[in-house]
């Protein structure tokens, strides 16, 4: 592939920043949710796609810098779905989540009624669906079923919360304070979990594509789909935390200012600004908890498919140690062989060794047919956002 020397740092289809660290993922997703990409014209988008295609086919014109390529890829990733190749509707892009969601959240903070809960959860449902793993097509009927189920369950939880708070007026002041402060978050978090699970339930039944190191599809995995949805649901639990905590604390101090006490009409605009900033900060932090392209480290079986026994050198385990001072990845086989060079291992001793370390090592396993279909030890799948 003919590539200019200036573009040697650019990697097509790969994130600009290290995805194994939280800071790297945070910098990556700050690019993805950049609201300025909402104003990219159709002409500019086509130019970015063409530039990336030229790079891919080795026909890149001279004078193109790596920064230009990174910017083109950023714009494409923010607007185009990685699985379908189609544009995501502007309000449902991750870059549109904060600008379009803040007005709803701001009103919802003041009015806990069914209509605004429906509006909020409808927006959440569409964002969840638009940013799902779309390697398998979803029929319109399943989308509608998921939407009705997600919004109905989420709104029911939220409205039930409102009724609980209203009934809390009959309780003692201390009990009422506990309910009003601590019940809203678990209720909204539960609603968000239901929303994600029901809007993406098709992935659980159909599975999602798992890729090898070349980008080729190895198979369809329901286990990977379950992991993807669980991770996404967890981010939706973390996302509202700052929104529930920070604005009330900040506004409690701002409202004491003499200027605002004399000019109460400025309270709503200031509250909207506080919600906007809080939402804008919490979104990249929440979705950065996990990489979008998740990796599955597979432990090769003790016996190969042809019946021959696998050697210990073929066993490769990746784990995250408890100590933050240790490396994030580690080949257990290297340390083990260094300490036990002359040790003869049989099948029972290996099984015991695995059993002993399973309590400390997190190993992800996919369906056996996927493991049999590839020799690649590191598989990836699009988790969605």
TrEMBL record:
Protein name: Sidoreflexin
Organism of derivation: Cyprinodon variegatus (Sheepshead minnow)
Chief subcellular location: mitochondrion
GO CC, one annotated term: mitochondrial inner membrane
Lineage, opening ranks: Eukaryota, Metazoa, Chordata, Craniata, Vertebrata
Transmembrane segments: 97-119, 144-165, 177-198, 237-254, 266-290
Cell location: Mitochondrion membrane
Entry similarity comment: Belongs to the sideroflexin family.
InterPro entries: Mtc (IPR004686)
Membrane-protein topology: Multi-pass membrane protein
Top-level division of the source organism's lineage: Eukaryota
Listed GO MF terms: citrate transmembrane transporter activity; monoatomic ion transmembrane transporter activity
